[in-house]
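Please decode residue identities from the backbone states below.
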């Protein structure tokens, strides 16, 4: 089950390590944290549903949360407004102290990893980087002609690496995680 509270805490965690971030950068860092956690531990941080979209793989709830739409968020809207501040296209962590009680230690590990590896990149650089992954690249032609707005990605499609990937995952590990996700032990 997707919990917006986990996503909100992940946003705050990332934002607390940076002065501010744009929407694309924040979405891409969460995607990369989800990918890291999936490859290492067999589940994503957010448990979000992913779609290939024009700007790359995007978690739908992640995108919804960043829209600050109180109709979509219902009970989590006040929590979001308490932890994350929005000014134009930029997001900031509030000064509120957070226990991060919805984030496991491995979730924080994944978020720390992506901040260390990708935190200095811009949103555009991250978009271009994530476009290299097969889960997006296989659908790229659909977005060039604006044929579709999005294509649903199956969880096992996120189990991929690229040549210069920093995740350092062996083919055997990829196969193990794929078998875990698909239930094919």
């Amino acid at each position: 089950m997707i919990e917006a509270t986990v996503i909100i805490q992940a946003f705050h965690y990332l934002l607390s390590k940076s002065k501010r971030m744009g929407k694309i950068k924040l979405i891409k860092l969460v995607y990369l944290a989800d990918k890291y956690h999936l490859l290492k531990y067999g589940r994503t941080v957010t448990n979000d549903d992913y779609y290939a979209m024009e700007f790359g793989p995007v978690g739908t709830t992640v995108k919804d949360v960043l829209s600050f739409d109180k109709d979509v968020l219902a009970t989590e809207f006040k929590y979001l407004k308490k932890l994350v501040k929005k000014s134009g296209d930029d997001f900031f962590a509030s000064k509120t102290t957070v226990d991060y009680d919805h984030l496991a230690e491995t979730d924080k590990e994944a978020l720390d990893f992506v901040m260390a590896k990708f935190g200095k990149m811009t949103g555009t650089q991250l978009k271009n980087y994530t476009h290299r992954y097969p889960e997006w690249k296989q659908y790229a032609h659909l977005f060039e002609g604006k044929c579709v707005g999005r294509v649903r990605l199956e969880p096992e499609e996120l189990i991929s690496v690229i040549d210069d990937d920093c995740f350092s995952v062996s083919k055997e590990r990829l196969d193990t995680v794929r078998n875990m996700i698909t239930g094919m032990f």
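Observation: The chain has one domain: 4-182.
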